Amino acid sequence: MKQFNLLLIAACLFSFSAGAQHKQYLTFKNTKDLQSFLNTKKTTFPLISVHRGGPMKGFPENCLETFENATSFQPVVIEFDVALSKDSALVIMHDDKLDRTTTGTGLIGNYTYAELQSVNLKDNEGTETSFKIPTLDQVLNWGKNKVLFTIDLKEGVPYARIIDAVRKTHSESNSIIITYNANQAAELHKLAPDLMISATVKGKADLERLNRMGVPNNRIVAFVGVSEPDKAVYQYLHSKGISCILGTMGNLDKRAAANPNKKVYYTLLANGANILSSDSLQQAGNELDLYRADKKLSSRNVKIK
Fold first, then answer.
1. Superfamily grouping for domain 25-95+133-304
2. In 219-279, where does DSSP find H-type helix?
């Protein structure tokens, strides 16, 4: 009996350990499948967009290993930043300087890609890891049939270069490119009319301007800001089939952390947000799980591996 109990305990521990390794992946057959998934005229499946990829202890921001780790918690949208090296390589880095997030110093634009490979990434606590600065191609190739991307461009990075990388890696079906004004959105749509665009839309006038400039509703994911809009804004955008990203990084994440029992993220979803762009993968993810369970929401685009 004692031996049986030990075997049972070992089996349970193995099962728990194996379960902890499960990945929650997002897969889309093509761009039409992605557009259908984001269309709020149909039943939606809310997601978390992990800001800079979901950094946590031991996992630096904007890092392939961190992106993979995030999929252990949730089916995720990965938001990341693209910068240019001295030799015009597209590398993944938020800051202009290396100092905060790597073992290097100085402007990223002062180093070639080969030189950047000599530094290691640091997590947000300043602890050095063995992880390296990835390229855009590496990230896009990794992410196919795993995650949905929102791609943020640092100053000086041309949209055409990003589009070329998306085309080369066949990542059209899991990439959304971030813009910050209507002119950028219109430029991007002219260059790549099939791609999804994250555009700042805080009301009817913003959407109408985008439409006048040739950007159709079925290519738009609306970033509604970092404070919660009126519910009428959500209702209007949803009536057009447009999913809404609410940025919780900052004040809303702080409010949620200070009031864990108030289900802040759950309420934001109930009020109309479709995607929460957050620095709090674990807490926000737990509340997304609860919300989806309560509303009996599921998606054929989510695969457990």
1. Phosphatidylinositol (PI) phosphodiesterase (3.20.20.190)
2. 231-239, 251-258, 264-271
Interatomic CA distance for residues 186 and 87, integer angstroms: 29
Give pLDDT tens digits for 22-52: 999 999 999 999 999 999 998 799 999 999 9
Which amino acid does the sequence have at 20? A
Q: Are 237 and 11 within 8 A, CB to CB?
A: no
For residue 141, the tally of other CB atoms under 10 A from its CB is 16
- The Cβ of residue 122 has, within 10 Å, a number of other Cβ atoms equal to 20
Structure tokens at 101: 């997030």
Distance, in Å, from the CA atom of 298 to the CA atom of 43, rounded to the nearest integer, reads 9
Strands 76-84, 148-153: pairing is parallel
Q: How far apart are CA 125 and CA 229, in angstroms?
A: 33
CA 134 – CA 242 distance, rounded (Å)? 32
- Distance, CA of 281 to CA of 213 (rounded, Å): 36
Put simply, whether the predicted model's pTM sits higher than 0.90 gets the answer yes
Tens digit of pLDDT for each residue in 236-248? 999 999 999 999 9
Alpha-carbon distance 114 to 275, whole Å? 36
Q: What is the 3-class SS of 160-198, one letter each residue?
A: HHHHHHHHHCCCHHHEEEECCCHHHHHHHHHHCCCCEEE
